[in-house]
Amino acid sequence: MKSSLGFLKQNVFPAAAGFLLVFGLAHVGLFERVENLTLDLRTRERVKHQPEADPRLAVVAIDDESIEKIGRWPWPRERHAQFVELASSAKAAVVTWDILFTEPDTVTPANDVQLAAGAAKARAAGTSVIFGAVTNEKPGAESEKSLTLPVAHIEGDIARIPGDVALLPPVPALQEQARYALVNTPPGTDGYRRVVPLLGRAGTRVYFSLSIESVLQLWKVSPTDVKVRLGDGIYFKARGVEHRVPIDETGGYLVNYRFGIEGSNAFGFSLLTEGLKEIYLQKKKLDDFPDLSGKILLVGQVATALTDNGPTPISGFTPLVLVHANVIENILRGDYVRYPSPWWVLLGCTVVGIAGLAIFSKRNLVAQAAFGLGVPVTYIAVAVYVWVQFSLWLPIVWPIFGFVALQIFMISRRLLAEQRAKAQIKGMFGTYVSPALVNRMVASGESPQLGGHEDEITAYFSDIQGFSGFSEKLEPAKLVELMNEYLTACTDIVQDEGGTLDKYIGDAVVAMFGAPIALPDHAFRACVASQRVQKKLLELRAKWEAEGDKWPKIVWRMQSRIGLNSGNCIIGNMGSRTRFNYTMMGDNVNLAARMESGAKAWGVYTMCSEATKAACEQHGGDRVIFRSLGKVVVMGRSKPVPFYEIVGLKEDVTPQTLECLAIFAEGMTKYYAQDWEGALACFARSELLEPNVPGKTPGVSSNPSLVFQDKVRHFQEDPPPAGWDGVHVAKEK
After folding, report:
1. pTM of the model
2. Residues 297, 58: contact at Cβ < 8 Å?
3. Which of 273, 324, 445, 662 is 20 to 30 A off residue 595, Cα-Cα?
């Protein structure tokens, strides 16, 4: 009896309590977000190995090649009218347009009539045509002769279905000759489209989405024969088979993404149209032309310059027509996300946890480590496999979190029992130059020549931290406005300090100091420019925040990293004999780029090499404040390079920051002496005085004090080898 109680107390209760706790946290926001991310990773892995989509579906892609051949988007509607007629000649079952024709063609009204006539001919030939519609706060013109009716049979609270007060359908002429359905695929709270609506509400009326309407038309199912049960499914019978499409209480559907554009049976709009014209208008016979009979042709935008793209589990920049395509393919194949019973998962995890506590807690550390690593790796491998093969969503986050927590408990208990000591488990878990310089170049009487020469300059690289996030949250026009303001400010400062703009690379600014006009103090000028840019960005952040809702919060937190290096480089006009650019190249240019990209790892926003610091101090004295961050072997080099943070200009650096630098320098001395406790204490003190503080300074997630605390903790657990000289070897560019 005593033995049984001991077993329960020592093994069963801790395992059961631990897994029940994390199981209860499974639907907390953070856990859900991380779980979704793990599913995205599994989905991206699966997409790489999927066969092509269901042959009954083909995506007609308005791609870059089509726009290049046909012309700027949007195209005249006569193009679409011609396509739908050709598609019906090819006996396509359904032609669905993930495109809105909600506004009349005021330039050529006859085009609306022509498109409606094309839809009528297609319908007469047995091809269903579906146009896109959206819910809207202002109603569009609805025809009394519309072929589309709201969903008739719904069980549940339709107020929970997303939508708006009114419907914005295609122009009336199209409503009378074709059906329409909703194209809305709004993103989730994190910006990704995982759950998309199969139903949309316009006032008190409910309509089907483009994807399910396409399948219903393919299988000749009347919308009046469809029953909707919110929180359960959409039910209909087709070709003698009962179908259920699972939905949640809002009519949302978890998309079982299987393919991207590569596996979607995609055909370019222009190529497909030209082929159909040759076959049905010119009566030619084409070998290997795709058979379109009986297919759903889903027409949508995939060109990179168009706006109908967004983040999905497939990628961060996905043509949204693929969302509809994946939903259609899911329904055609009955391929829906499956869930195991959470209670069975909980039971299985608990049993494994009990076994681990009972069997391995008293084994040697090798066996315990093998168990501690083997179970999570095996579980993750199984979760990936069943998702790839069977669309079975096995949760990863809470079981792994629970198992990790159990291992922590096991290790802590073992240390307490064997050593009677406290266990510490630490989570490691781009005009080139200013007008003044142009005047000096003109006065020299020398014409630009193709070719370069070697000279000593300071190379300057800057890049916006997390720029992809700006691209996702800002529409193109707003992104251009933001970048123009930012790049203008940066360029003006660089040129004001005598620098030369080399190029812009997206959000990055590449410049040089000391060419084409020699500047003895080029390093000092570059350092001053870098700090003026950082001060200007501080002003811009305040300005953007004061503009309120004009900009999302990510803009208020914009930070830019800058890297500098001085040395001999090849500079001059390089390119072809008819077109060339004034630029720089060489190993020292590459090192400047490494300074910029490497700044992130050290929690700083301006970083330079020792050569830049020495040259700066030679001409600028102590006006520029530096902080030594050690030595690093950057990618592409074999020798270590001392590098420094440019903290600021002397007149701007506060006494608190100067005190921080002194304490930090003391910590570095202890760090090189491998006095880990002393170094950790110094870095903890300097952390409190750092000018950039995570959670307080906009956009900042780390600083040198925090970085070196992590390094010290790492060396406390895994001491460096004998002869260690403090050099850090960079694993990334």
Report:
1. 0.54
2. yes
3. 662
